Every structure is written in structure tokens, then in C-alpha cells.
Amino acid sequence: MMRLRYIKVAVFVALVAAMSAGVVGCFGYNMMGIPLFSMKIEVKGPNNAPLVGAVVSCSSGETVTVDTSGVAKLNFSDVGPYYISVRYQDNIIASYNVSMPSDGGKTLTANYVPGATPSAGEGAGGNNYFAMMGARLYPLLFQYVFNAYGYSIDLSKYQPGQYTEWQISTNGEKQFSTRKAYLTKLPNGQEWWQVSFQANKDSMLMEVLFSDKQQSIRRMRAKFGSEAPKEVPVTEGWYTSPMQLTPESIEGSVVKKGVSVTVPAGTFTCDQLEFGVAQGFTLRMWRTSDVPGGVVKYEMSGDNGKDLYSGELKSFGTGATTELGSY
To answer: Domain residues for 284?
Structure first.
């Protein structure tokens, strides 16, 4: 039984990593091959020492291994969005959504915090293993809650207490469900949000404190399975906020109005939006004013019309509050 649980958790973890490395990696494509912009990723390990051997990969196709300088330089030959991941010994340290030329010349910092290993009595399965893997993967998981291929998934604002729950599928097959809720806003402008994931019988519940305008994560508490809530160490550079579409871009993307869309949460009358996010890939979103965030469905499809990744609204409502005693 323990081995089976380990396999289920590993499959869930691998799925999320593969989705980010593969589907989201479709961002950015090289047309001329002439580097016009660049940026640096500074990768640090324990005691702020350079994390030699860490691998920085970009959806542009460039991969750089960190040397004793601790800095990886990436070059970009096209304008537009890109996805960057930082890995060390099969662990995902950080992930970023960047856009050129606006992020050209920047230096981002990725910090590696070694995770605890399961005790001998627990083996490789159970909630402790899930907690260890989840803590390392949470930047990727948050990308799927707040991002649609680097762009904000929300076309309108949430009010405190509002939540939405989503069914995430890849290649037409259901994979896991996720829920996000806007809990409260502090006097200094920071916001507490709640995010949960459910894959079969495995679950994670996290409450995160975002900086003003959700530019970074400042604090996090997490509960893995039936374990007690714990504070999770948060360092700079573990999260980058999604790119916000301009009102003009949103309205210009409308291809149909008054479309009837049925999702698990019900049937809605929507505007259908379409964006060409990369060569051969189309992002579609169905917008309505009837739900928090203003979207009931989003999907990415290839030039063959096949859906690669999609999210459908399962439920929504009000009354969400902290379950982990975060504030």
C-alpha cells in the first residue's frame, strides 16, 4: 500500500512538472536566431553560496548549467512571453514567467532550500513525502492556479471571501482539481489567498500572503494530507506574477459573443476570447461577469485543433476564510 501511494504521489508530481516543462514550454519561439535581449538568474544554495550544477531552462530552447559564478545568463531573440525553470538534482527550485523586452536586463534570484527526507519508518510514501515534494513544487503549482501560459487567468477581480474550484485536464483527460480563494486584504495592501489541490486521495492546502498587487509571495502556511499546518520557508524569487492583459487586448480578442458554455459549475452565456500565444498554439478563454474572476473555462490547443491543456469551473461561491490560522 505504501508503494502504491508513493507511485500516485510521484505521478501527480511528475504530471505537474511535465505540464510546465512541455505545454508551458511552448512559449517563445526563435525566428531570427539573433539575441536581442538577455537576463540573468542568480542561483544560491545554503549560506548564499553559488549552487553549482543547477540547471536553468528557458522555453526559448536555451539551457544553462550554473558554474562557480552562480549566475546563468539567458538570451532572447524575440519579443513576447517566456517560461523559465530552475532545477537542482531533480528538484524544482523556482519558475518564472517573463516577457521581452520589459524584463530584459533584469537579474532574478532563485534560492534552494534543501528539503527533509522521509524517516526510515515512513519509507518514501505517505503525507511526509507529499509534503516534501509539494513544498519544492509549489511555485509550479501556483503557476497553474493564477496563470494561463504566463497570462493572468482572471479577467476580473475577486472580492474577499470569494472562491472558485477548477478541474484541470491534459489531452482531454482529467488530472486533478484545484481551488483558490481570496481570503482578506491587510491594511498594508498585502493579500491572503488560499489554494488547494486534490489528486485522487492526495491533497495539499496552502495559504499564502501576497505582496501588494500580487507581485511576490511573502509568507506561506501549508497542510499536507491529514498533517497539522506548518509554516513553509519563503525566499525571494519563488514566484513571479502573471502578465496582465490590457483592456484593449482583451476586447480585441473577442471572436464570439453570447456563446453558451456548459462546465461542471453550470451553463453560462459567455464571450469567447482567442489569443495566439505562440506559433501554432491558441489560448481560448470564455468570459462572463457571473463568476469571480470572470472566466468559466480556458484551454490551449495546437494547430491540429487538439486540446493540450484546459481548466473548467467546477464551483464558485463566497464565505471562504482561513483554515490554517494564518491571520
So the answer is: 247-317
